Amino acid sequence: MKNDHDISSKRILVVRSVCFTMILSIVAGACSSSTTTSDQSDETEQVSESTNPADSMPSSSVDTTSAGAYITLADFQASQETYSESKVVLFFTATWCSTCKKARSNLESDLSAIPSDLTIVLVDFDSETDLKRQYGITVQHTFVQIDTDGSELAKWSGSLTAQEIVENTI
After folding, report:
1. Cα distance between residue 120 and residue 144, in whole Å
2. How far is residue 60's CA from residue 58's CA, in Å, rounded to a whole number?
3. Is the model's pLDDT at 12 over the cut of 60?
4. Any bridge partners for residue 88, and if so which?
5. Is the pLDDT of residue 118 over 70?
6. Residue 9: per-residue pLDDT
7. How far is it, in rounded angstroms, from Cα 169 to Cα 150?
8. pLDDT for residue 70
9. CA nearest to 102, candidates 51, 37, 155
10. For residue 127, is pLDDT > 90?
11. What is the largest CA-CA distance in the chain?
């Protein structure tokens, strides 16, 4: 009998270990995007040690004739009227999110890819709880297109390039 009990106990431990590993995998993948790309290896890149979201955000808007704006929430709030003729998309991002980092890297590496009629506003997922509540944001790497009154026009997740953002705007 004792032998049967030992075998049963070992099986329970194995099942618990497998379940725990599966749960960890699910939690680790929570930051992954709903968009599949050919370069999924970026999902495992190291998280920046910076805890200040502003460290990875642009310091001010891009003001060129060929590119749209890529700005912080503070810059947008300071002069919303400047962007009233533009499509405005809020990008809820976190410094620790690998897919957010990939999207930011893509956008920042080719700012001219942002159309002149598009403003992308970086919103810190971790600190902007009121905006998350207002737009029903539950995961980082979410985009919300808003009108001049701040009303939601469209919402989606997973875009990694300016072109993908444009394709989701109305």
Report:
1. 10
2. 6
3. no
4. 119, 146
5. yes
6. 53
7. 15
8. 96
9. 37
10. yes
11. 81
Q: Nearest 5 degrees, angle CA 153-CA 159-CA 163?
A: 85
> What secondary structure does DSSP assign to 15-66, as a single string?
HHHHHHHHHHHHHHGGG--SS--S-GGGGGPPPPS---GGGGS-SS----SS
C-alpha angle 106-165-30 in degrees, rounded to nearest 5:
75
Residue 112 tokens, joined: 């001219």
Tokens 């995961």, located at residue: 139
**Cβ contact 141:100 at 8 Å:** yes
**What is the spatial distance between Cα 95 and Cα 47, in angstroms, rounded to a whole number?**
8
Cα–Cα dist 79/76, whole Å = 6
Residue 128 in tokens: 């902007």
Rg (CA), the chain: 21
Q: Which residues pair with 93 in a beta bridge?
A: 124
Q: Among the residues of the chain, which ranges form H helices? A: 2-28, 73-78, 98-109, 129-135, 162-168
Residue 60: enclosing H or E segment and its boundaries?
none
Tell me the pTM.
Answer: 0.65
- List, in order, residues 6 or more apart from 141 with CB less than 8 Å away: 31, 33, 92, 93, 94, 97, 99, 100, 103, 157, 158
